[in-house]
Amino acid sequence: MRDGDVTYVKKSCAYITRNDTELLVFEGPGHAGYQVPKGTVEAGEDPREALFREVIEESGLATFQGVRHLTTDVWRRREARRYVRNFYHVPVHEHRDAWTHTVTGEGAEVGAEFDYRWLDLASADAEAFALDLDDYLHTIPRGRDRPASTAPLAASD
């Protein structure tokens, strides 16, 4: 297959954490295993803008504590399609331990309900994640590795 026959799709993926010890996950339709909020970077958006939009649409969360880009990779799921995945660390202060959110925005998932819960980061490596979304869990800063706290960021910042 020639490179010209391959479609590249930009994605943004959010590793949302609470208290440096928990990762926000859901089990969504169509895939076995845990997922994190993620989605396609739309025309005219950069990956960070897409991150904010996707997190709001898929989880309802809109206030973040110091968003940080972790890495970008190219992931292959289908023969003629590659996904350019941008992974971000998104610390939050969230009091709910679990909730159901109805997806907003546009696209095939609108109206779907995602059941969210927190997964212990220390044991996350032993869990099954869909779509290789756990590939970079090891890059999430923990404890002393975490940068100094910053003021909350609203999705519009």
What does this 3D model show about the protein?
Strands 1, 2, 3, 5, 6, 7 and 8 form a seven-stranded mixed beta sheet that branches. It is built from one helix and nine strands; from the N terminus they run βββαββββββ. It has one helix at residues 47-59, and strands at residues 7-18, 22-26, 38-40, 63-65, 68-78, 81-92, 98-102, 113-120, 152-154. Helices cover 8% and strands 39% of the residues. A hairpin with a 3-residue loop joins strand 1 and strand 2. The radius of gyration is 15 Å and the shape is globular.
Q: Quick summary of this structure?
A:
The chain is built from 1 helix and 9 strands. It has one helix spanning about 45-60, and strands spanning about 5-20, 20-25, 40, 65, 70-80, 80-90, 100, 115-120, 150-155.
Q: Main sheet? A: 7 strands, mixed
Distance between the termini: 42 Å
Shape: globular
The total strand number stands at 9
Name the helix and strand elements from N-terminus to C-terminus, one letter apiece: EEEHEEEEEE
Enumerate how many helices there are, as a single number.
1
Return the average pLDDT rounded to an integer: 90
Unreliable runs: none
Radius of gyration: 15 Å
Helical residues, percent:
under 10%
Percent of sequence in beta strands: 35-45%
**What structural category characterises the helix and strand content?**
mainly beta
